[in-house]
Amino acid sequence: MTKTIIKTEKLCKTFSSGGIQQHVLKNLDMNLIQGDFTIIMGSSGSGKSTLLYAISGMDKPTLGIVDFAGENIAALNNDQLAIFRRKNCGFVFQQIYLLDNMSVLDNILTSGLLVNNNKRELVKLAKDLLIQIGIDENAWSKFPTQLSGGEAQRVGIVRAIINNPKVIFADEPTGALNSLASDNVLDVFTHVNRDGQSIVLVTHDMKTALRGNRIIYLKDGVICGDLQLGAYTENDPIERHEKLRIFLAEMGW
Ligand SMILES: Nc1ncnc2c1ncn2[C@@H]1O[C@H](COP(=O)(O)OP(=O)(O)OP(=O)(O)O)[C@@H](O)[C@H]1O
Q1: 170-202 burial string, b = 16+ CB within 10 Å, else e?
Q2: Which is it for the CA torsion 56, 57, 59, 62, positive or negative?
Q3: For ligand 1, is residue 46 a contact (CB within 6 Å)?
Q4: C-beta of 47 in contact with ligand 1 (< 6 A)
Q5: Domains of the chain: total
Q6: 68-118, pLDDT tens digit by residue?
Q7: 21 Cα–ligand 1 center, Å
Q8: Domain that includes residue 75, residue range
Q9: Domain of 247: which CATH number?
Q10: Member of which family (predicted)?
Q11: Phi and psi at residue 132, in whole multiples of 5°?
């Protein structure tokens, strides 16, 4: 049986600048399922990142409800939101915000210690996760500047999942990577999703979108398409690619 993890009701976000109001999200109703790898697509400026920030508590909506695991986070103040995010959300951005003066392991532990003060347990978990995603021991004491972009992003994913978040939110996580590094990072997302991790990922890239099992398409601040694509497999059938291609063509992508 499916379980909802995030539900929005009449979600609105309006930006005002210079006396001009821009309605970016318009009464948006959406239901995200626990364990899904949901992809958000849409043309540039359609409101994808704004939606991601609103449902993850990174930004407050102007109006509406964001029910996140039973709590309306739209009603929380900034301090409450910060605590909520720390406990429930993991973030992966195109720009990898690792701390340059800390080792790979310490970057992850710094994030983990915000929620769990059992350092011994955290070190073991961090090392297990790093091994799982193919970052071997000789890289653990390196500094971020000594890593490739793909390695740094994989470390960024471990940092995002160290606190066992209910949802990982990713905004163009492979946007700055070459094809091989991008594949490695996508493999990590696939791996953690198969372990039950809910993921919501914004992308413009079809190869990235194929890793999701559901594609939500935004146009001008509303959902205009919602495709159940089925789970990604290593020998991904061409029919699945076609299904996505046809859907995107219908959306005018
Ligand atoms: N903090 C802000 N202040 C004012 N306007 C904003 C702000 N954030 C976003 N916008 C505007 O909201 C609209 C939607 O932006 P958003 O980044 O959500 O789009 P997007 O679909 O993610 O675009 P892209 O694919 O180009 O990243 C844009 O017109 C943008 O200029």
Answers
A1: bbbbbbbbeeebbebbbebbbebbeeebbbbbb
A2: positive
A3: yes
A4: yes
A5: 1
A6: 999 999 999 999 999 999 999 999 998 888 999 999 999 999 999 998 899
A7: 13
A8: 4-251
A9: 3.40.50.300
A10: Belongs to the ABC transporter superfamily.
A11: -55, -35
